Amino acid sequence: MNITSGKLKLTIAAVYLSLLFIGLYFLFSAVDIKDLTSYDFIRSKKDIILQYKEENFLFLTITFFIFCIVWTLFLGFATPLLLFSGFVFGKWWGILIVLISTSIGATLLYVLAGAFFRDFIEEKLAPKFSKLKELFNKNDTVYFMCFRFVGGGGAPYPAQNVLPVLFNMPIKNYMIATAAGSLPSMFVTVAIGSGIEKIIDENVELSFIKVISSPNIYLPLAGFFIILISAFILKRIFFKKD
Q1: To the nearest 5 percent, what fractions of the chain are helix, strand and coil?
Q2: What is the C-alpha to C-alpha distance for residues 77 and 106, in angstroms, rounded to an integer?
Q3: What is the DSSP letter of 151?
Q4: DSSP 8-state secondary structure symbol assigned to residue 78
Q5: Which of 61-70, 94-103, 126-135 has the lowest mean pLDDT?
Q6: Are 195 and 220 in contact (CB under 8 A)?
């Protein structure tokens, strides 16, 4: 029975990794990264994207929602999703879509990682985060929410998503802490994406002065620095090293 279970886990893990690499291959084959970072390219496609959104709002919302779940499940970073969501849907609808979808994707990744990659995660992450175990045992929801809020102490987003495997965190607590802890920083990033769309809508040439002087940008940035300072204080209080 154990041998059969082990083979099943190995098969599922292999399928997961195969799909991950295939997805990355087709992504980078179909998308030119230089275009995605080109202001002129983004400005030229803005009207097409927003017109499509107006004509197919429900379809685009559902498609993007599912894409966010899959992207997070396959170890994608959150920032591109947040900026795109703000750019296309605006800050309020955008944060609602991306917060719920990434929380679901992160939870699915957590369950998958706990079932099939627990040994690997413990080997790689336990030496770095073993000191957090005592804190998580006290109140895993509160401390994981704070951990999310402080940006995972510098840990990449995919690593943050699987870290609670080390502490056997209940799924319900994980999802609540993920959504609540991620909300402030995600909202700021979504608002920046929305601000970029408004700057492009004014048909101005992109420059540091014009960007930083726009309230659509400097207000979210001010919020970001407030979060950064608060995160630093929380990190010193709750995650200080012995």
Answers
A1: 85, 0, 15
A2: 11
A3: G
A4: S
A5: 126-135
A6: yes
Count of C-beta atoms within a 10 Å radius of residue 150: 22
Mean pLDDT of the 108-129 span: 81
How far apart (Å, rounded) are the C-alpha atoms in residues 68 and 97? 9
Count H helices, E strands: the chain?
12, 0
Distance CA 107, CA 176 (A): 10
Please return the burial class of 67, using the count of CB atoms within 10 Å of its CB with bins 0-12, 13-18 and 19+: middle
Q: Are 191 and 197 in contact (CB under 8 A)?
A: no
DSSP state letter for 206: P
Domain locations along the chain: 32-238
Distances, alpha carbon 83 to alpha carbons 87, 182, 189, in Å: 6, 15, 6
Inter-residue contact 94 to 186 (CB < 8 Å): no
Please say if the pLDDT value at position 102 is more than 90: yes
Comparing CA positions, the residue from 181, 177, 183, 154 lying closest to residue 164 is 177
% of the chain residues with pLDDT over 70? 64
Lowest-confidence range among 14-28, 84-98, 127-141? Answer: 14-28
DSSP 184-205: HHHHHHHHHHHHHHHHHHTTPP
As a whole number of angstroms, the distance between CA 78 and CA 91 comes to 15
pTM for the full model?
0.74
